[in-house]
Amino acid sequence: PESKMGELPLDINIQEPRWDQSTFLGRAQHFFTVTDPRNLLLSGAQLEASQNIVQNYRAGVVTPGLTEDQLWRAKYVYDSAFHPDTGEKVVLIGRMSAQVPMNMTITGCMLTFYRKTPTVVFWQWVNQSFNAIVNYSNRSGDAPITVGQLGTAYVSATTGAVATALGLKSLTKHLPPLVGRFVPFAAVAAANCINIPLMRQRELQVGIPVTDEAGQRLGHSVTAAKQGIFQVVISRIGMAIPAMAIPPLIMDALEKKDFLKRRPWLGAPLQVGLVGFCLVFATPLCCALFPQRSSIHVSRLEPELRAQIHEQNPHIEVVYYNKGL
Protein backbone atom coordinates (compact mmCIF):
# COMPACT_ATOMS: atom_id res chain seq x y z
CA PRO A 1 0.00 0.00 0.00
CA GLU A 2 1.17 3.50 -0.91
CA SER A 3 1.57 5.66 2.17
CA LYS A 4 2.21 9.36 2.70
CA MET A 5 5.63 10.55 3.81
CA GLY A 6 6.56 9.00 7.13
CA GLU A 7 3.19 7.34 7.61
CA LEU A 8 3.06 3.67 8.59
CA PRO A 9 2.19 1.18 5.84
CA LEU A 10 -1.03 -0.79 6.41
CA ASP A 11 0.48 -4.21 5.76
CA ILE A 12 1.94 -4.94 9.21
CA ASN A 13 0.20 -8.07 10.47
CA ILE A 14 -0.79 -7.24 14.03
CA GLN A 15 -3.04 -10.32 14.24
CA GLU A 16 0.14 -12.32 14.74
CA PRO A 17 2.80 -11.95 17.48
CA ARG A 18 5.67 -9.55 16.72
CA TRP A 19 8.35 -12.24 17.00
CA ASP A 20 8.85 -15.44 15.00
CA GLN A 21 6.74 -18.08 16.76
CA SER A 22 8.53 -21.03 15.20
CA THR A 23 11.53 -20.44 17.50
CA PHE A 24 11.67 -20.82 21.29
CA LEU A 25 13.29 -17.38 21.59
CA GLY A 26 10.58 -15.66 19.57
CA ARG A 27 7.87 -17.32 21.66
CA ALA A 28 9.68 -16.39 24.89
CA GLN A 29 9.88 -12.70 23.85
CA HIS A 30 6.21 -12.80 22.94
CA PHE A 31 5.11 -14.28 26.28
CA PHE A 32 7.41 -12.01 28.34
CA THR A 33 5.51 -9.13 26.71
CA VAL A 34 2.08 -10.74 27.20
CA THR A 35 2.61 -11.63 30.88
CA ASP A 36 4.29 -8.31 31.77
CA PRO A 37 2.69 -7.39 35.15
CA ARG A 38 3.27 -3.67 34.47
CA ASN A 39 0.30 -3.78 32.09
CA LEU A 40 -1.99 -4.03 35.13
CA LEU A 41 -1.06 -0.47 36.11
CA LEU A 42 -2.44 1.03 32.89
CA SER A 43 -5.51 3.24 33.25
CA GLY A 44 -8.80 2.70 31.45
CA ALA A 45 -7.97 5.67 29.21
CA GLN A 46 -4.62 4.15 28.21
CA LEU A 47 -6.32 0.82 27.40
CA GLU A 48 -8.93 2.59 25.29
CA ALA A 49 -6.26 4.59 23.45
CA SER A 50 -4.53 1.32 22.52
CA GLN A 51 -7.86 -0.21 21.53
CA ASN A 52 -8.52 2.75 19.21
CA ILE A 53 -5.07 2.53 17.58
CA VAL A 54 -5.49 -1.22 16.96
CA GLN A 55 -9.09 -1.09 15.73
CA ASN A 56 -8.38 1.90 13.48
CA TYR A 57 -5.30 0.22 12.05
CA ARG A 58 -7.29 -2.95 11.31
CA ALA A 59 -9.91 -0.80 9.60
CA GLY A 60 -7.17 0.81 7.48
CA VAL A 61 -6.82 4.08 9.37
CA VAL A 62 -3.35 4.97 10.64
CA THR A 63 -3.31 7.19 13.74
CA PRO A 64 -1.23 10.25 12.65
CA GLY A 65 2.42 10.18 13.71
CA LEU A 66 2.27 6.54 14.82
CA THR A 67 5.57 4.62 14.78
CA GLU A 68 5.88 0.87 14.26
CA ASP A 69 7.05 0.41 17.87
CA GLN A 70 4.01 2.31 19.16
CA LEU A 71 1.72 0.17 17.00
CA TRP A 72 3.17 -3.06 18.43
CA ARG A 73 3.05 -1.63 21.95
CA ALA A 74 -0.65 -0.78 21.42
CA LYS A 75 -1.32 -4.29 20.08
CA TYR A 76 0.23 -5.93 23.16
CA VAL A 77 -1.56 -3.58 25.57
CA TYR A 78 -4.82 -4.27 23.73
CA ASP A 79 -4.24 -8.05 23.76
CA SER A 80 -3.35 -7.96 27.45
CA ALA A 81 -6.76 -6.56 28.44
CA PHE A 82 -9.33 -7.52 25.77
CA HIS A 83 -10.64 -10.96 24.80
CA PRO A 84 -9.40 -11.94 21.29
CA ASP A 85 -12.74 -13.43 20.15
CA THR A 86 -15.38 -11.33 21.92
CA GLY A 87 -13.44 -8.04 22.19
CA GLU A 88 -14.75 -7.59 25.75
CA LYS A 89 -12.50 -6.20 28.46
CA VAL A 90 -11.27 -9.09 30.65
CA VAL A 91 -11.69 -8.87 34.45
CA LEU A 92 -8.47 -7.51 35.95
CA ILE A 93 -7.46 -10.73 37.73
CA GLY A 94 -8.31 -12.88 34.71
CA ARG A 95 -5.74 -11.15 32.49
CA MET A 96 -2.47 -12.78 31.49
CA SER A 97 -0.61 -9.84 33.05
CA ALA A 98 -2.16 -10.69 36.44
CA GLN A 99 -0.79 -14.25 36.36
CA VAL A 100 2.50 -13.47 38.08
CA PRO A 101 1.28 -11.19 40.93
CA MET A 102 -1.76 -13.38 41.66
CA ASN A 103 0.07 -16.70 41.47
CA MET A 104 2.94 -15.32 43.49
CA THR A 105 0.63 -14.34 46.35
CA ILE A 106 -1.41 -17.55 46.28
CA THR A 107 1.54 -19.93 45.82
CA GLY A 108 3.59 -18.09 48.45
CA CYS A 109 0.75 -18.57 50.93
CA MET A 110 0.18 -22.21 49.96
CA LEU A 111 3.86 -22.89 50.63
CA THR A 112 3.90 -20.96 53.89
CA PHE A 113 0.71 -22.33 55.44
CA TYR A 114 1.10 -26.00 54.55
CA ARG A 115 1.06 -27.39 58.08
CA LYS A 116 -2.54 -26.88 59.30
CA THR A 117 -5.60 -28.45 57.67
CA PRO A 118 -7.88 -25.34 57.58
CA THR A 119 -5.22 -23.15 55.93
CA VAL A 120 -4.36 -25.93 53.44
CA VAL A 121 -8.02 -26.20 52.42
CA PHE A 122 -8.43 -22.42 52.26
CA TRP A 123 -5.43 -21.70 50.01
CA GLN A 124 -6.06 -24.65 47.67
CA TRP A 125 -9.63 -23.36 47.30
CA VAL A 126 -8.44 -19.78 46.64
CA ASN A 127 -6.03 -21.12 44.00
CA GLN A 128 -8.73 -23.10 42.19
CA SER A 129 -11.15 -20.13 42.35
CA PHE A 130 -8.48 -18.00 40.71
CA ASN A 131 -7.90 -20.74 38.07
CA ALA A 132 -11.62 -20.83 37.33
CA ILE A 133 -11.69 -17.04 36.77
CA VAL A 134 -8.66 -17.21 34.47
CA ASN A 135 -10.09 -20.15 32.51
CA TYR A 136 -13.44 -18.42 32.18
CA SER A 137 -11.85 -15.14 31.08
CA ASN A 138 -9.60 -16.77 28.50
CA ARG A 139 -11.97 -19.45 27.21
CA SER A 140 -11.90 -19.88 23.47
CA GLY A 141 -14.77 -18.25 21.61
CA ASP A 142 -14.84 -21.17 19.17
CA ALA A 143 -16.06 -23.79 21.66
CA PRO A 144 -18.25 -21.92 24.16
CA ILE A 145 -18.27 -23.63 27.54
CA THR A 146 -21.46 -23.51 29.61
CA VAL A 147 -21.63 -22.11 33.14
CA GLY A 148 -22.64 -25.60 34.32
CA GLN A 149 -19.48 -27.15 32.84
CA LEU A 150 -17.42 -24.36 34.40
CA GLY A 151 -19.00 -25.08 37.77
CA THR A 152 -18.30 -28.81 37.48
CA ALA A 153 -14.67 -28.19 36.55
CA TYR A 154 -14.27 -25.75 39.43
CA VAL A 155 -15.78 -28.07 42.05
CA SER A 156 -13.88 -31.11 40.74
CA ALA A 157 -10.52 -29.35 40.61
CA THR A 158 -11.00 -27.89 44.09
CA THR A 159 -12.00 -31.29 45.48
CA GLY A 160 -9.05 -32.95 43.73
CA ALA A 161 -6.56 -30.37 44.99
CA VAL A 162 -7.81 -30.45 48.58
CA ALA A 163 -8.01 -34.27 48.63
CA THR A 164 -4.46 -34.58 47.26
CA ALA A 165 -3.11 -31.98 49.69
CA LEU A 166 -4.76 -33.49 52.76
CA GLY A 167 -4.08 -37.10 51.73
CA LEU A 168 -0.38 -36.45 51.14
CA LYS A 169 -0.19 -34.27 54.24
CA SER A 170 -1.25 -37.21 56.42
CA LEU A 171 1.09 -39.57 54.53
CA THR A 172 4.12 -37.31 55.01
CA LYS A 173 3.56 -36.84 58.78
CA HIS A 174 6.25 -39.40 59.59
CA LEU A 175 8.66 -38.30 56.86
CA PRO A 176 11.33 -35.57 57.09
CA PRO A 177 9.77 -32.08 57.30
CA LEU A 178 11.27 -31.07 53.93
CA VAL A 179 9.05 -33.64 52.16
CA GLY A 180 5.94 -31.98 53.62
CA ARG A 181 6.88 -28.72 51.92
CA PHE A 182 6.37 -30.33 48.50
CA VAL A 183 2.78 -31.41 49.21
CA PRO A 184 1.27 -28.14 47.86
CA PHE A 185 3.08 -28.72 44.56
CA ALA A 186 1.63 -32.22 44.20
CA ALA A 187 -1.85 -30.84 44.94
CA VAL A 188 -1.48 -28.14 42.27
CA ALA A 189 -0.22 -30.69 39.72
CA ALA A 190 -3.15 -33.01 40.46
CA ALA A 191 -5.64 -30.13 40.16
CA ASN A 192 -4.21 -29.15 36.75
CA CYS A 193 -4.67 -32.71 35.50
CA ILE A 194 -8.36 -32.50 36.50
CA ASN A 195 -9.11 -28.86 35.76
CA ILE A 196 -7.78 -28.38 32.23
CA PRO A 197 -9.35 -31.48 30.63
CA LEU A 198 -12.69 -30.68 32.33
CA MET A 199 -12.57 -27.03 31.26
CA ARG A 200 -11.95 -28.20 27.71
CA GLN A 201 -14.22 -31.26 27.72
CA ARG A 202 -16.12 -29.96 24.71
CA GLU A 203 -12.95 -30.20 22.65
CA LEU A 204 -12.47 -33.78 23.86
CA GLN A 205 -16.03 -34.59 22.71
CA VAL A 206 -16.19 -32.82 19.32
CA GLY A 207 -12.49 -32.28 18.60
CA ILE A 208 -10.59 -29.13 17.66
CA PRO A 209 -10.19 -27.72 14.14
CA VAL A 210 -7.14 -29.01 12.27
CA THR A 211 -5.80 -27.05 9.29
CA ASP A 212 -3.24 -27.44 6.53
CA GLU A 213 -0.09 -25.31 6.30
CA ALA A 214 -2.05 -22.42 4.77
CA GLY A 215 -4.66 -22.45 7.54
CA GLN A 216 -7.49 -24.11 5.56
CA ARG A 217 -9.73 -26.15 7.89
CA LEU A 218 -9.65 -29.87 7.14
CA GLY A 219 -11.98 -31.09 9.89
CA HIS A 220 -12.15 -31.63 13.67
CA SER A 221 -9.92 -34.04 15.57
CA VAL A 222 -10.26 -35.41 19.10
CA THR A 223 -6.73 -36.88 18.90
CA ALA A 224 -5.30 -33.40 18.27
CA ALA A 225 -7.37 -32.07 21.18
CA LYS A 226 -5.93 -34.74 23.50
CA GLN A 227 -2.38 -33.94 22.40
CA GLY A 228 -2.93 -30.18 22.78
CA ILE A 229 -4.51 -30.51 26.22
CA PHE A 230 -1.72 -32.83 27.35
CA GLN A 231 0.88 -30.23 26.28
CA VAL A 232 -0.98 -27.51 28.17
CA VAL A 233 -1.15 -29.64 31.35
CA ILE A 234 2.61 -30.27 31.08
CA SER A 235 3.48 -26.59 30.59
CA ARG A 236 1.14 -25.52 33.44
CA ILE A 237 2.80 -28.03 35.78
CA GLY A 238 6.19 -26.90 34.47
CA MET A 239 5.23 -23.32 35.31
CA ALA A 240 4.65 -24.35 38.91
CA ILE A 241 7.87 -26.35 39.32
CA PRO A 242 10.44 -23.54 39.81
CA ALA A 243 8.08 -21.55 42.03
CA MET A 244 7.05 -24.53 44.15
CA ALA A 245 10.33 -26.44 44.29
CA ILE A 246 13.04 -23.79 44.71
CA PRO A 247 11.55 -21.57 47.49
CA PRO A 248 10.84 -24.55 49.83
CA LEU A 249 14.52 -25.59 49.67
CA ILE A 250 15.66 -22.03 50.42
CA MET A 251 13.06 -21.54 53.17
CA ASP A 252 13.91 -24.88 54.77
CA ALA A 253 17.52 -23.77 55.07
CA LEU A 254 16.62 -20.24 56.23
CA GLU A 255 14.10 -21.31 58.88
CA LYS A 256 16.89 -23.15 60.72
CA LYS A 257 18.80 -19.86 61.08
CA ASP A 258 18.35 -17.58 64.09
CA PHE A 259 17.46 -14.62 61.89
CA LEU A 260 14.09 -16.15 60.89
CA LYS A 261 13.49 -17.89 64.19
CA ARG A 262 13.46 -14.48 65.83
CA ARG A 263 11.27 -13.00 63.06
CA PRO A 264 8.72 -15.69 62.12
CA TRP A 265 6.44 -13.07 60.51
CA LEU A 266 9.04 -12.64 57.75
CA GLY A 267 8.31 -16.16 56.48
CA ALA A 268 5.28 -15.38 54.32
CA PRO A 269 6.55 -12.17 52.63
CA LEU A 270 9.93 -13.79 51.96
CA GLN A 271 8.25 -16.87 50.47
CA VAL A 272 5.98 -14.70 48.28
CA GLY A 273 9.01 -12.72 47.06
CA LEU A 274 10.97 -15.87 46.19
CA VAL A 275 7.97 -17.34 44.38
CA GLY A 276 7.47 -14.09 42.48
CA PHE A 277 11.08 -14.06 41.34
CA CYS A 278 10.74 -17.64 40.02
CA LEU A 279 7.38 -16.97 38.35
CA VAL A 280 8.48 -13.85 36.46
CA PHE A 281 10.76 -16.15 34.47
CA ALA A 282 8.94 -19.49 34.64
CA THR A 283 5.55 -18.24 33.39
CA PRO A 284 6.65 -16.88 29.99
CA LEU A 285 9.34 -19.56 29.47
CA CYS A 286 6.89 -22.40 30.09
CA CYS A 287 4.25 -20.81 27.85
CA ALA A 288 6.98 -20.80 25.19
CA LEU A 289 7.83 -24.52 25.56
CA PHE A 290 5.46 -25.62 22.80
CA PRO A 291 4.44 -23.53 19.78
CA GLN A 292 0.92 -22.11 20.03
CA ARG A 293 0.33 -23.71 16.65
CA SER A 294 1.15 -27.37 17.16
CA SER A 295 1.39 -30.03 14.49
CA ILE A 296 0.36 -33.67 14.38
CA HIS A 297 1.11 -36.36 11.80
CA VAL A 298 -1.89 -37.32 9.64
CA SER A 299 -1.13 -41.00 10.39
CA ARG A 300 -1.93 -40.34 14.08
CA LEU A 301 -5.39 -38.86 13.43
CA GLU A 302 -8.68 -40.74 13.69
CA PRO A 303 -9.24 -43.18 10.75
CA GLU A 304 -12.30 -41.32 9.37
CA LEU A 305 -10.56 -37.93 9.40
CA ARG A 306 -7.39 -39.47 7.92
CA ALA A 307 -9.43 -40.96 5.05
CA GLN A 308 -11.23 -37.65 4.52
CA ILE A 309 -7.95 -35.70 4.34
CA HIS A 310 -6.36 -38.27 2.00
CA GLU A 311 -9.37 -38.00 -0.30
CA GLN A 312 -9.22 -34.19 -0.42
CA ASN A 313 -5.45 -33.92 -0.52
CA PRO A 314 -3.27 -37.06 -0.65
CA HIS A 315 -0.02 -35.08 -0.26
CA ILE A 316 -0.70 -33.70 3.23
CA GLU A 317 1.40 -35.46 5.87
CA VAL A 318 1.21 -33.00 8.75
CA VAL A 319 -1.76 -30.94 10.00
CA TYR A 320 -1.82 -28.02 12.43
CA TYR A 321 -4.02 -26.97 15.36
CA ASN A 322 -4.08 -24.27 18.03
CA LYS A 323 -3.27 -25.92 21.35
CA GLY A 324 -4.71 -23.18 23.60
CA LEU A 325 -2.94 -21.98 26.75
Automatic annotation (TrEMBL):
Its main location: mitochondrion. One of its GO terms (molecular function) is L-serine transmembrane transporter activity. Mitochondrial serine transporter that mediates transport of serine into mitochondria, an important step of the one-carbon metabolism pathway. Mitochondrial serine is converted to glycine and formate, which then exits to the cytosol where it is used to generate the charged folates that serve as one-carbon donors. One of its GO terms (cellular component) is mitochondrial inner membrane. InterPro entries: Mtc. This is Sidoreflexin. Belongs to the sideroflexin family. It is found in: Mitochondrion membrane. Pfam families: SFXNs. Coiled coil: none annotated. The keyword Chloroplast does not apply. Keywords: Amino-acid transport, Membrane, Mitochondrion, One-carbon metabolism, Transmembrane, Transmembrane helix, Transport. It comes from Prolemur simus. It is a multi-pass membrane protein. Signal peptide: none annotated. It catalyses: L-serine(in) = L-serine(out). It comes from the Eukaryota. The chain crosses the membrane at residues 270-290.
